[in-house]
């Protein structure tokens, strides 16, 4: 323990104190990213891919659970379907929002046609629906299409409240 009460351990070449867990969007490996390094530049220790690339991460049920349970980054999810006109119309805005919100927020998409069980368990009744998760639990939900500015503002406002 250090003077601040944080648990500190020696890593290969630096001290790591409460380094957040970041789930790789490419291989699913859980990475610890030291707080003294920019998360935007972090790469996966397993597959060497960037942990954040400014694009929403497509998640299936297992991927959603992994990001929710193992990741320390807030998770913003767009629940959508390929046949949904408003979902398709919002997709470019959600892509733009991902560029603005990462790495502070993991931005992801869940296709409700492919993850019907997950959508049912979460009570997704209409699409598109944005849901924001923090600390493994849902903290906010918003149904309906939004533009990029509104997505970013809504997300930041909800995180401030959470």
Structure characteristics:
Glutaredoxin; 162 residues; 25% strand; alpha/beta; two-stranded antiparallel ribbon; 5-stranded mixed β-sheet; globular
Structural notes for this entry:
The chain is α/β, with parallel strands linked by helices and 162 residues long. It has a domain at 53-161: 3-Layer(aba) Sandwich (Glutaredoxin). Helices cover 30% and strands 25% of the residues. The chain contains 4 helices and 9 strands. The protein has helices at residues 61-70, 85-101, 116-122, 148-161; strands at residues 8-10, 15-17, 21-23, 30-32, 57-59, 75-80, 106-111, 129-134, 137-143. The strands form 3 sheets. Strands 5-7-6-8-9 form a 5-stranded mixed β-sheet, sandwiched between helices. A two-stranded antiparallel sheet has the order 1-2. A hairpin with a 2-residue loop joins strand 8 (129-134) and strand 9 (137-143). Residues 1-17 have low confidence and may be disordered.
Quick structural overview:
By secondary structure, this protein is α/β, with parallel strands linked by helices. The protein has helices at residues 61-70, 85-101, 116-122, 148-161, and strands at 8-10, 15-17, 21-23, 30-32, 57-59, 75-80, 106-111, 129-134, 137-143.
Structural class, by secondary structure, is alpha/beta
Would you tell me the overall average pLDDT?
90
CATH superfamily of the domain at 53-161: Glutaredoxin
Helicity level: 25-40%
For this structure, the quaternary state is single chain
Record the strand order, biggest sheet.
Answer: 5-7-6-8-9
Unreliable spans are 1-17
Give helix and strand order, one letter per element, not per position: EEEEEHEHEHEEH
CATH level-two architecture of the domain at 53-161: 3-Layer(aba) Sandwich
User: Within the CATH hierarchy, at the fold level, what is the topology of the domain at 53-161?
Assistant: Glutaredoxin
Q: Shape, please?
A: globular
Q: Describe the biggest sheet?
A: 5 strands, mixed
Per DSSP E runs of 2 or more residues, the count of β-strands stands at 9
Distance between the termini: 28 Å
The number of distinct helices, counting runs of at least 4 residues, comes to: 4
In angstroms, what is the radius of gyration?
Answer: 16 Å
CATH class of the domain at 53-161: Alpha Beta
Strand fraction equals 15-25%
């Amino acid at each position: 323990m250090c003077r601040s009460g944080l648990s500190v351990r020696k890593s290969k070449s630096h001290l790591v104190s409460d380094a957040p867990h970041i789930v790789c969007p490419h291989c699913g490996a859980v990475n610890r990213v030291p707080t003294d390094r920019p998360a935007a530049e972090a790469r996966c220790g397993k597959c060497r891919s960037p942990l954040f690339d400014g694009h929403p991460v497509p998640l299936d049920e297992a991927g959603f659970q992994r990001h929710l349970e193992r990741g320390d980054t807030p998770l913003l999810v767009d629940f959508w379907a390929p046949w949904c006109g408003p979902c398709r119309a919002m997709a470019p805005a959600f892509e733009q929002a991902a560029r603005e919100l990462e790495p502070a927020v993991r931005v992801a998409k869940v296709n409700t046609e492919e993850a019907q069980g997950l959508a049912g368990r979460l009570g997704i009744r209409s699409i598109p629906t944005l849901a924001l998760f923090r600390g493994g639990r849902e903290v906010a939900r918003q149904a309906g299409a939004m533009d990029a500015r509104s997505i970013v503002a809504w997300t930041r406002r909800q995180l401030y409240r959470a």
